[in-house]
Amino acid sequence: MLAYRFLFNLTLILMMTLGSSLSYSQNPNHSQTNNPSILILGDSLSAGYGLNLEESWPALLQAQLNQAAAPYQVHNASISGQTSAEGAAQIDELLARVKPNVVILELGANDGLRGLSIKQMKVNLQTMIKKSQQQGAQVLLIGIRTPDNYGRRYGEQFRAVFANLAQSHNTGLVPFMLAPLESVITETNRMEYIQADGLHPTAKAQPLILQPIWQALTPLLALQVESTH
Question: What is the pLDDT of residue 227?
Answer without folding.
Answer: 55
